Amino acid sequence: MSIRTALTKELGLEYPIVSAPMGSVAGGSLAAAISKAGALGLVGGAYGDLDWLRTELSKARSESTRPWGVGLITWHATREAVELALSYEPHAFMLSFGDPRPFVPAIKEAGCALICQVQDVEDGKAAKAAGADVIVAQGTEAGGHGADRSTLPLVPAVVDAVAPTPVLAAGGIADGRGLAAALMLGAQGALMGTHFYAAIEALGHESAKERIAAAKGRDTERTRVFDVVRQHAWPRPHTGRAIRNRFMERWGRREEDLDEALDEELPKFRAAVRDGDFDTAMVWAGEGVDLISDVAPAGELVRRIGVETEACLRHASELVRKA
Questions:
Q1: Residue 71 contacts by C-beta under 8 Å, 6 or more apart in sequence?
Q2: Pair 159, 248 in one domain
Q3: The domain containing residue 226 runs over which residues?
Q4: 53-63 residue pLDDT tens
Q5: pLDDT exceeds 90 at position 322
Q6: DSSP state, 98?
Q7: Are 271 and 251 in contact (CB under 8 A)?
Q8: Is residue 129 part of a domain?
Q9: Measuring CA to CA, which of 51, 156, 202, 237 is 20 to 30 A from 148?
């Protein structure tokens, strides 16, 4: 059985699920596994490291038998990175956090479906005007970078503002109940990240995946400290939601002090990332971590979420009774 929405019909999917293009985590094998299972897997190009992109996009293309895609951080993207990604013939291209217009002609010319992620209604309207084929309305509950609007009220507001362009819901959605709820809000599917971070095929460190499976939503917090220490000048109002650790507790709300201490802190942070020391390094994760209890194959996660969504939709129809 499958779920039919505008998204699934457009891209030939069985389930209206898209995996978030998580930088350094969503590699080619993860994207391919998700796509094979009937969802849409996206490679996380993040800041556009060309060597990393070549390696992971090659895997996605060679291992995929169904549609797949790639995503980049828009404000940091370059024409070279976009053109390189397009050379691997993805079926979809996602741009997040910034003005997509400089890259739209090349993406459209390549025949890619253009997915634009937004965090407010006005940016949703701008993405539609720029030519987005699909718009992601991302709430603050999301892991990694985002803004300050909550998913539940944001999604239907964006749906109304950009109709008939299909909208995906994102932020705190980690199971079939969340996907079913997103469909009831008028979305045509959901973008999910944190649950796929905890997939076996994800590139994240095993101890990071274990932290996600053990964490609770209250353990996550939005912060700028990891951008400061990595010297990434993210535009406001974007912050990153991560699992709270000692580094965040030490430097939270002391970003200026951290900036002044970078000569000492940056080498230690890089070593922590290299060694998988997540008392210092970050684990990006959304509030939906309460719903994640194990590390499993990506295809199994897609099927679990799909089956639960179908059950929820059938149950919802049973709630309506004729007088």
A1: 20, 21, 26, 42, 43, 44, 45, 93, 94, 95, 96, 115
A2: no
A3: 206-275
A4: 999 999 999 99
A5: no
A6: S
A7: no
A8: yes
A9: 202
